[in-house]
Amino acid sequence: MAKIFIDGEAGTTGLGIRQRIQALPRTYDLEILSIDPAQRKDADARRALLKQADIAILCLPDDAAREAVKLAEGLNVRLLDASTAHRIAPGWVYGLPELDEQQGARIRTAKYVANPGCYSTGAIALLHPLVTAGLLPEDHRVSINAVSGYSGAGRVAIEEHEKNGGPAFFLYGLDLHHKHLPEIRHYSGLTHSPLFVPSVGHFPQGMIVSIPLHLKDLPGYPTPRDLEATLTKAYRGCEHVLVLPPETRLLADALANTDRMELRVHHNGEQVVLTARLDNLGKGASGAAIQNLLLMLGL
Ligand SMILES: NC(=O)C1=CN([C@@H]2O[C@H](COP(=O)(O)OP(=O)(O)OC[C@H]3O[C@@H](n4cnc5c(N)ncnc54)[C@H](OP(=O)(O)O)[C@@H]3O)[C@@H](O)[C@H]2O)C=CC1
Ligand SMILES: CC(=O)N[C@@H](CCC(=O)OP(=O)(O)O)C(=O)O
Fold first, then answer.
1. By C-alpha distance, which of 63, 111, 68 is closest to 85?
2. Which of 60, 66, 155, 180 is the pocket-test mutation for ligand 2 (most atoms within 8 Å of CB)?
3. What Rg value do the Cα atoms of the chain yield, rounded?
4. Domains recognised in the chain with CATH numbers
5. Where in the cell is it found (predicted)?
6. Residue whose CA is closest, atom 10 of ligand 2?
């Protein structure tokens, strides 16, 4: 039986992971080690559970995640970190199994796996295959727009939205230094940091990441079909990522409570908008963590 400790189990991501583990078939034989809620921030109590666990999933703010890694030093436990702390850190494997054909195998044997950011999952899934195929030059200057459900900002924001009605819609990250940019740049293969404008709508779960491109600016003037065919080939056989035909209207929360992501190439022949739709708490967080956990366990 594999023992799993979810550090930060009571938070938004932690809760989603616990519910998903509990819903897995019993034959997977997983045991969740839970901490006494009164001791959830006590370093000794956390280390004691890290010592017993085969895998610990860190669902903590970045500083607390870094602290957990220190607490686990010298122990046999493998770590899956949902925070932003280790996404491009040396020695950590990026937990996006669909990144390329080897990524699943890298995750399977890794001691340290970093779960991707929600926006990053959509952006990298759209950009990486196009850069790899040479359709998008590495030094192309890319803009990314995105909207997330309010659960993306954690428990305190959820309470604010649900108690006070919350704002209908807002842009944020307007200093243009969003915390996901380093991983987006690193794993998409771009040499320039994209211009990224995230936003939040007054709906709990869901996300659309969209990337506009002028095809005439790309080498060889590719067609929308070239882009779609490249994405389709990259994700053939992937259970959680689907490349689908364009739509005229895309609802941001249509995949709420699923662990899927849908990619589309919308176009008018000369201009395209690539879109990734997902649940920020599903493929954008807890669903991805379960995918990684099962890979790490060889299940
Ligand atoms: N929400 C999302 O869509 C996504 C979130 N993430 C990442 O997952 C991590 C958790 O986020 P989220 O679940 O939204 O956040 P929440 O605020 O909902 O939950 C964080 C949890 O961590 C606990 N905690 C805080 N400090 C410590 C500590 N020092 N030791 C132990 N426990 C601690 C909190 O307890 P208390 O509330 O009592 O302080 C809370 O239970 C973050 O790094 C976030 O960036 C990743 C992908 C998406
Ligand atoms: C709506 C909202 O605020 N979203 C968060 C990102 C979600 C998240 O916490 O992502 P990671 O921890 O995986 O990086 C933000 O923009 O900071």
1. 63
2. 180
3. 19
4. 2-116+286-297 (3.40.50.720), 118-278 (3.30.360.10)
5. Cytoplasm
6. 117
